[in-house]
From TrEMBL, chains A, B:
The keyword NAD applies. NAD(+) binds at residues 76-89, 289-301. Mg(2+) binds at D225, D249, D253. The keyword Zinc does not apply. Belongs to the isocitrate and isopropylmalate dehydrogenases family. LeuB type 1 subfamily. Residues 4-360 form the Isopropylmalate dehydrogenase-like domain. Coiled coil: none annotated. GO terms for cellular component: cytosol. Homodimer. Pathway: Amino-acid biosynthesis; L-leucine biosynthesis; L-leucine from 3-methyl-2-oxobutanoate: step 3/4. This is 3-isopropylmalate dehydrogenase. GO terms for molecular function: 3-isopropylmalate dehydrogenase activity; magnesium ion binding; NAD binding. It comes from Notoacmeibacter ruber. Catalyzes the oxidation of 3-carboxy-2-hydroxy-4-methylpentanoate (3-isopropylmalate) to 3-carboxy-4-methyl-2-oxopentanoate. The product decarboxylates to 4-methyl-2 oxopentanoate.
Amino acid sequence: MTKTLLLLPGDGIGPEAMAEVEKLVAVMNKEESAGFETEKGLVGGAAYDAHGAAISEDDMAKAMAADAVLFGAVGGPKWDDVPYEVRPEAGLLRLRKDMELFANLRPAICYPALASASSLKPDVVEGLDILIVRELTGGVYFGEPKEIIDLGNGQKRGIDTQVYDTFEIERIAGVAFDLARTRGNKVCSMEKRNVMKSGVLWNEVVSAVHKASYSDVELTHMLADAGGMQMVRWPKQFDVIVTDNLFGDMLSDVAAMLTGSLGMLPSASLGAPDAKSGKRKALYEPVHGSAPDIAGQGAANPIAMIASFAMCLRYSFEMVEQADRLEKAIADVLESGIRTGDIMADGCRKVSTSEMGDEIAAK
Amino acid sequence: MTKTLLLLPGDGIGPEAMAEVEKLVAVMNKEESAGFETEKGLVGGAAYDAHGAAISEDDMAKAMAADAVLFGAVGGPKWDDVPYEVRPEAGLLRLRKDMELFANLRPAICYPALASASSLKPDVVEGLDILIVRELTGGVYFGEPKEIIDLGNGQKRGIDTQVYDTFEIERIAGVAFDLARTRGNKVCSMEKRNVMKSGVLWNEVVSAVHKASYSDVELTHMLADAGGMQMVRWPKQFDVIVTDNLFGDMLSDVAAMLTGSLGMLPSASLGAPDAKSGKRKALYEPVHGSAPDIAGQGAANPIAMIASFAMCLRYSFEMVEQADRLEKAIADVLESGIRTGDIMADGCRKVSTSEMGDEIAAK
Ligand SMILES: CC(C)[C@H](C(=O)O)[C@@H](O)C(=O)O
Ligand SMILES: CC(C)[C@H](C(=O)O)[C@@H](O)C(=O)O
């Protein structure tokens, strides 16, 4: 059975990081007859330069048809002044929305070899393993009206709308509870119900889903601002966190930074299982950005991209054993003191993007 | 000249903490003829229990008339199920809105004596002194529509609206730039212009204010999610941060937690200068909450409340020397190893709320 992958390397360090995944795919096809078929497309600034849009219709169609999309990173100073509608991020947001990738899984794990790289005390982050489940197709990212109105007199009004419907909260809560059962069996739901009506509804629906189908899982609720505090104070209190699109954006970035492993963290964005085939549409991307300042120098850390591919093996192709092996290879390479510049430490050996990829492939 | 203060102790540890400020006021009236006249009112759950509202019209009128309002904390499990409109927080939100307290100043400083209490490495937080200037009367907190609609079929829709007008952004930017000039002369503005139209407008207006009147101040822009990351990575890169109501809520809580001094941090919420008198309406409150679990035991740390009173001296009464003295007294007491339970450390002397107040008053 062939497995189709659409590779969208994007901008900045995206292409360099993606090249290391391409190596792995080639190795797996050759040594294990894994049967991956890859296509490549453009997204972000690269797509804007080629087509004047942040992703072409053709590449969107390929994304919709692929078994999984691997996404690098988008953006850079070159496109800071392009119109809002075609800014690099618009390509990513369209992929999320059109593919209905409502569930964004962002594991924040602290690799033992990197605990000392965190700005937090080692005992606070050592062994940290939390999973943020972020709603990705709703909330203030997509609600209408979203506009700037000219009020005259030199005054403008900027408007964004946060909207959540019951079904959107139900399905993301379901994903969080299901995943909790495979881990520490705890979910903490975060919103601002003391200020936002969408937060009131969020709280109510998550509680109802819990009561109806997941009473074996421990559920707690936290206000999102207190959640941010607790994340910094003692992150190990959390197992799975479920939250909305905007809070998830903020909280997952804070969580990523805690681990000291920012350049290493992957994410998966999943749709609902197809009624017939049971397959989910899916996109996998590193949590880090396009890092235009170091692009093209072979200095980028490809681990987040490679770990995103490991999530792809796990969630899109049920290649659990291979995913485990790949994740172990990453940890082993780090353990053996091989580092890209961003995570360099005393006594370690500094390698390039491509050497890091080779080392992991070799393991 | 008399100076009128309205004290709104609120719920939980609010009253205990406020009692220590009352001591200080009495001392200052007696020893320095400071001329404070205090009145007391109810807010939050306490007001709900007495009047069925989170603040009475009578107390609102007193707040509008006072030179300054000192606010303790609101909320607790007792009121978790009261209707949304009269929940404890509604009292605070109404005070902010009706008094037009658009500028919320949240200093995050790390007391040297407490640097080791932070979950961050000491070198990351030692000497930290940042000021978050949060917009407080706009954004998603107050925008309309804000409602839950019943869509039938068991589906509901929660809606909140983020709205910012040019003038709202201009005035908060002005406050941030003015304050930066009295400090490190740097402002970092945070929004999500890559996703939110209000963020696009925010960015544009802050830049315009900078260009027109504050080009001597260094201005940078950061996406709010990246800002959260950078706050955890290396917070000392910041001097003044200016941001909207919701991002300010999240980011200031994270910043507070970094310092290890959460129970010690004050805030000031200021209105525009009155056209005639030049006086600003003002409310001062600790950053911490009502901590119902330790209320009534004399275990609360009154320092945040006392430091809020110091901000009151500084910003409402231009008693700069007294404010400096009070802030120094707090640092000295901490330096001398006197601690409430929340910040207890080896070799320190543990004291009650009221002993801590006495020690500071004595200094
Ligand atoms: C690039 C941007 C639109 C995006 C977001 O805000 O969702 C990014 O920050 C992320 O977290 O994936
Ligand atoms: C109590 C609550 C309404 C409030 C807010 O969200 O603004 C609090 O978190 C704060 O930061 O002052």
